[in-house]
């Protein structure tokens, strides 16, 4: 039996193979052999026109957005300050004045 490499994140020696991927049971990190793990950290989030977004940026909304579960609408041109980038389908966490905390998709904003 061949020895598997330790986890690149937490250095755990209890890694196991699942198909072509290696998995660490202690930190739940998944990677393929020979992968450096830089792909998770190198994810770049871009706005509707292709500008790279970062935490703390100010963006404006490019389309009227209905707020789910409410009759409120985020109007075109609404400025959103101090955004925070997160993983997931809605990749921007923010607070919009008059509405409150929201999650937005980067495809509906542009950097100011």
Automatic annotation (TrEMBL):
The protein's matches in InterPro entries, at most eight in alphabetical order, are given as: YjdM, YjdM_C, YjdM_N
Query: What region holds the Protein YjdM C-terminal domain?
Result: 45-112
Which superkingdom is the protein from?
A: Bacteria
- Domain Protein YjdM N-terminal intervals: 4-32
Pfam families, A to Z = YjdM (PF03831), Zn_Ribbon_YjdM (PF08274)
Alphabetized PANTHER family for the sequence = PROTEIN YJDM, PROTEIN YJDM-RELATED
Q: Its family?
A: Belongs to the YjdM family.
> What name does the UniProt record give this protein?
Alkylphosphonate utilization protein
| Organism in which the protein naturally occurs | Pseudomonas oryzihabitans
């Amino acid at each position: 039996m061949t020895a598997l490499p330790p986890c690149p994140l937490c250095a755990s020696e209890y890694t196991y193979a699942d198909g072509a991927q290696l998995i660490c049971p202690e930190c739940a990190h998944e990677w393929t052999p020979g992968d450096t793990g830089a792909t998770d950290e190198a994810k770049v989030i871009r706005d509707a026109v292709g500008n790279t977004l970062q935490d703390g940026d100010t963006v404006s909304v490019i389309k009227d957005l209905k707020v789910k579960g409410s009759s409120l609408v985020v109007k075109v041109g609404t400025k959103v300050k101090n955004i925070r980038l997160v993983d997931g389908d809605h990749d921007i966490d923010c607070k919009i004045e008059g509405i409150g905390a929201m999650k937005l998709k980067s495809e509906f904003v542009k950097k100011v």
